Structure formats: C-alpha cells, structure tokens
Amino acid sequence: MKLILSIFLLFVFNSYFGHCQQVIEKCPNYRSNYTYFATTIGTNTYSYNWKVNYNGVINNYYTETINLDFEEYGNCKLELFIEDDINCESRIQKYEISIIPCQETTFYVPNSFTPNNDGLNDIFKPKGENFSDFEIFIFNRWGQEIYHSTEITGWDGGSGGYYVPEGVYSYYITYRDIKKRPMQLVGCVTIIR
C-alpha cells in the first residue's frame, strides 16, 4: 500500500501546501510560532519521526504535529519520516526554513532645500532603501509640471533652463517597495534662497 504524505503549514491568515522552502522575515510584528503537521491518506499511520535542525541544534519529535518557535535568525531544516501499521514507509520529506532580518522599505522626503550653489543642501533628493521604479513630478503653485524624472539624482530647483523662484512646490512620487507594492507620496517642498 502506498503512503501519501503532505506537510501542511498553518499561518495566521494563509495556508501554504507542499512548499519545500519558507522564508520568515523577523519584522517588529512577525509571528515566531509556527505549527507543522503531517497527514497520511489511504492508510493507518503507525509512527511519525520529525528531525528538526535549527541552527545546528538537532531535536527529534515523534508526534503528528510539532510547534516551533523561531526566535533567532538562521536556518531550520525539517525532515519527516512516517511508517504505517503494515510497515509501509514513506520517503523522508524535507523542508527548509530561513529566518532573516526584516526586509523593509525606508523612504524619506525632505521638506526644504537651498539651491544656492554653496554645496550644502543644494538638491531636493528623496532618500531610502529597498525600493524600485521611482518616479517624481514637481508642480508649481498653478499646477504646472516643472520637473519630472525616473532617476533619483535629485532636482536642482531649475525648470526650462532657469531657476524657479523661492517658494513652495508640490511633488507627487511613486515607487515600489521591497515587496513590489505600489506606493505614492504627495507633499510640498520649500525652496529657500
């Protein structure tokens, strides 16, 4: 009799079936406790044998369900072996888990700059980490577009070959965060000369 084995993972909102790898980001709101369980179809299970290698520490469990806490960064390897009541054995099922630092996007937009060629704060330039597909539009107080770029090189306060006057200008910025979600920012920047 053939034994069919599946490893199921229970998460707070989603369930993933049959994956061999999992990445857990250790963010401020991450869940550290995960439940792993095995089911068999078409036979009566006699024994379960989980081998868990978490950062070089090996533990064995002999139950259908195991609960693991991932408090540290690193790697965890699960191996599951099942035997039924007529000594039919499953192959070892392997599952790898990586616990990594939080991969978040940071994005900062200054609220003023001084484009007076003194080498200090001369460019209006958003800064951040882990983002892509950047695009910026800057508008004057009448809503006319005076600057547009898909590069994060920064705006020098110029438009059409001339420097714009001191004052408040609106910006519209789009980008994608590290998880490829579209983000939008709308705000104002003040030019001080």
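(the above was protein one; protein two follows)
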Amino acid sequence: MSQVEYDYPLQDAAGATCTAHAWAKVPPALRPAERAELKGRAAELLRRHDAVLVAHYYVDGDLQDLALETGGIVADSLEMARFGRDHAARTLVVAGVRFMGESAKILSPDKRVLMPDLDATCSLDLGCPPDEFAAFCDAHPDRQVVVYANTSAAVKARADWMVTSSCALAIVEHLKSQGQKVLWAPDRHLGRYIQEQTGADMVMWNGACIVHDEFKGLELELLRREHPGAQVLVHPDSPQAVVLQADVVGSTSQLLGAVVKGAAKEYIIATDNGLLHRMRQLAPGKTLIEAPTAGNSATCKSCAHCPWMAMNGLQGVIECLALGEGEIFVPEPTRTRALGCIDRMLDFVRRNPAAVQPPVRGFVPNVGAA
C-alpha cells in the first residue's frame, strides 16, 4: 500500500486549527431551565427564517433533539447531504464541521447555509491541503480520484468521486470491477480497510481522524475480556488493530442500526461518543460501553469526542439565525467542479440502494422521532 508522506501536524497546530482553541470554544453545560429557554428561542428562529436544522450524530445531544423536534434530521454525512438538498427550506443550519456546510452549499447553491461556528473544522480536512493534494493527483494521472466527504470543496473539485463511510466500500468495489485503479484520500485507516475488503489497486494519502486514530487495540482486547458477551462496533476510520476485533464495522448510521436491531445486551462502541446519545434513545434497554483511547494510567481512558463537533451549541444556532453569522460560501468554479463528484456518489447510491444501509427511523416510546 502506497502512502504519501504527509500528515496533519498536530503538535504544530495553532489558531483555529488547534484542538486547544476548539476546546476553549465549547459551550458550557446548560441547566435545565437554560436548555429549555434556548431550545425555544432556536425553534422560533428556525420557523421564522424558513430554516431547517441538519445535525450530525456527533454534535451535542441538545442539538440532535432540537433537529428532530423541529422537522430536521440527525444523520451521517451522506444522509445530511441528501436531506439538505431535498428539503424545501430556504435556509439550512448545518450543525457539524465545516466540510458538511460546504457540501450542503455545493448541492444547494440557491439556499442560505449557516453554521453555528465556522471554526468547527476536521483534522482530515486540515491534513489534506488542496495544493499538495493536486500535486499528488498529478503524479497519478491514471487513477480514479476518490475522496472522503471529510475534505474541503477545493479537494473535492479535483476528485472523480466523493464517498462517505456508508458507501465507500461499494463504490470502490464498483470501480475495481470496471478495471479502474484508485487514488484515495485522505483517511489512511479507511483506505486500508477498503483495500483489504476489495483487493483494489489503491494509492493512499496519509491522513487520519484525530478521534478514531486514538482507539487502542490492546486496551480494547482487555475490555473485551471484561465483557465477553459484548458486541464490538467499530467505525472504519479506526486503526487496523481495532477494526480486526470488530463484530460490526460500519458508518455511524450502520453502527446505530447494529445496536437497535442487535440481540446482544452490551455493546462496545469505537467511534465518537456523540453517537451514544442517539443510541441510548433508540435502544434504551442496552448497555453501551465506550471503547478505550488510552491505558489505565491515563486521566481519560475513553475520551473519543471531536473538539470541533463539540463547538456546536444552541447559542450558536440562535446567533447564526438572529445575526446572519456563520454563512458558508463556495465560489465558482470550485462549487461546480466539486458538485460532479458528489452527484456521482448520490447517483450511485440511488441506483444501488442495497449498497448502503438506510438510517434508523421511526418512533421510540418516550423519545419521539428517530
């Protein structure tokens, strides 16, 4: 497996690209009365501005609940993209990280796309600068360029395909069946997993998600011994030593479905712990255990949460709607060029619905819309 020798320099990050900066902007915990007041104000502003809240599974539970209570959605990045494109609202409020807002704007150029905090970014996006990526593509002109959704609009503009973790495997399998070779970016762990599963000829960009990259294989093995009946659910952005221990490997929606539909009583979850909010709502009788990100001597053994996802809060939703702040713009011709790879993915998913597990929906007693 080839890799370009480039990675996101965590230790050198500063400003908006620094995780310390992100954690410093995380909204404080709310008291019940404050939460109710802010949710009421946000709901009224969504109604007044003909806006819908599109939230990722990793953001704060208050935002997830607000999205569902006001006719929005809580979903993975694939379903977020489809929902925002197809919804009638003139304004999309995207609670997640910046590439999600950019994808919404690429698909819906005539809609206003707002985000609670424009500094909310992603290590995979930061670790794949457009100029370096363009040079990587130029060095491999015979390959189909396949990029993960966790990339900037400028990177997508160089791609033939965009994929999410819920459809990447099926799309690369399709390309292999057509005799195509693949240039993959930016997550090396997801790329390795796909290559192992498909046998495709792939060269890899050398990036990683700072959350999933921290899961530890040895500590997971020890945890499994403590919970021998637990099912292990792993996101494919995780290291190989973790993925190899999984009972289920899948996207956030697929992991959620495994808990809701599974027969086990205990589940060890190796993905961002923001997903546990929805899991607890949809499977209230099951025990959820966070996979370890460190050993016994660490102050936090299971601390898998994206600092940039954590920046999203109710106050940010209120301010972006009330003040018109946090608007996403994607200039031409970047938007049109990036649209091609997203549309190609969405068309493939439409023509091959069995390739992607649908998101969990429905109603749950005492919880509401799923």
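Reviewer note on protein two: Residues 40 and 292 are 37 Å apart (CA to CA).
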